[in-house]
Specification:
Elements (H helix, E strand, L loop, with lengths): L10 E6 L1 H10 L1 E5 L20 H17 L11 H12 L2 H34 L2 E7 L5 H7 L6 E6 L12 E2 L1 E2 L9 H7 L4 H13 L1 E2 L8 E7 L8 E5 L5 E6 L5 H14 L4 E8 L3 E6 L1
Parallel strand pairs: 6-7, 10-11
Antiparallel strand pairs: 1-4, 2-9, 3-8, 4-10, 5-8, 11-12
Helix pairs in contact: 1-8, 2-4, 2-6, 4-7
Length: 295
């Protein structure tokens, strides 16, 4: 098994219009987009920490440190800041009597450093936001809402891409989107206070992970998976078109309402460029579900 594999899925699906399917099949490229292009206004926030005031953050930091004084154990020690390491060492060696006075001392120390860490992470996120490139898939081919929203009202197609260990398919590293209506933890005083105990690279990686792979429950039916990356230095614009190998495309499902002309054009492309790929025809059943048969 490929060491980059993060899941056990055999393939993922991409819903597209018929015209987009023709472009993908003829160019052998998939579009990776920056978050600003997404149709969900709550997806991957452009600004972080805008609702967090210094008073709430200060209280959250003191609360976090108070818990560490009682139990100076924090995961991922290799990513602790120098100050965090020094504090944890002091807490672990302090007597019960000494611990009672440590919180006040740390509170005075935190006032300046906490504000600086806050500003550093916010600015780092602003710089990185426009550099992100995200490729979106679904784990299912039979979502009626996805066909309607992304495949031109069932008139487009759904492309299936295999996760092939031997080819090191990039979607081996896809991560599932988590659906919740709770606030992003990294965008709360408590979450930010915890991040400030780590170096900025580790903290920003945690921010990216949660912000990139969390959506509200309104979108849960999509069963979305994402691969996140960054644009190349030479690139301009708000998206990047990256290639895939012909053998990674293993199936094309035509929508229930795909026209004969579109179906014929896509079939020709598949036969010429992807002879191993299977063709399917979706149908809308009376039992309120989508089915498909080999085309």
């Amino acid at each position: 098994m490929n060491s980059n594999r993060l899941h056990d899925h055999k393939s993922f699906f991409k819903y597209v219009s018929a015209d987009t399917a023709k472009i993908i099949l003829s160019t052998r490229k998939l579009r990776w987009s920056m978050p600003a292009l997404f149709n969900d206004p709550f997806d991957v926030p452009k600004e972080l920490f805008d609702g967090i005031d210094s008073g709430r953050l200060h209280s959250a930091i003191l609360s976090k440190i108070e818990s560490l004084i009682a139990n100076p154990d924090l995961p991922f020690p290799e990513h602790h800041t120098a100050m965090t390491k020094a504090l944890l060492a002091a807490f672990s060696m302090a007597s019960d009597a000494e611990k009672s006075g440590l919180l006040n001392q740390v509170g005075l120390l935190e006032a300046g450093t906490g504000s600086q860490a806050f500003n550093n992470m916010r600015e780092q996120w602003r710089l990185m936001y426009g550099e992100q490139r995200i490729l979106c898939f679904s784990e299912r081919w039979d979502s009626s809402s996805m066909w309607d929203r992304y495949s031109d009202g069932h008139k487009g197609a759904c492309l299936e891409f295999a996760c092939i260990d031997q080819l090191d398919s990039v979607w081996l590293m896809a991560r599932p989107v988590k659906y919740t209506d709770d606030p992003l933890h990294v965008n709360t005083p408590e979450g930010l206070a915890g991040l400030m105990l780590y170096n900025i690279d580790f903290a920003v990686a945690r921010i990216i992970e949660e912000c990139t792979h969390t959506k509200t429950t309104d979108w849960e039916a999509e069963k979305e998976w994402r691969v996140a990356s960054w644009k190349l230095q030479c690139e301009i614009g708000d998206h990047s078109d990256y290639g895939f190998l012909p053998t990674e495309l293993v199936g094309v499902t035509f929508g229930a309402c795909t026209s004969g002309d579109h179906r014929a054009a896509l079939t020709k492309l598949v036969h010429e460029c992807y002879p191993h790929a299977e063709l399917w025809q979706a149908s809308i059943e009376g039992g309120r579900k989508l089915t498909r048969v080999k085309s």
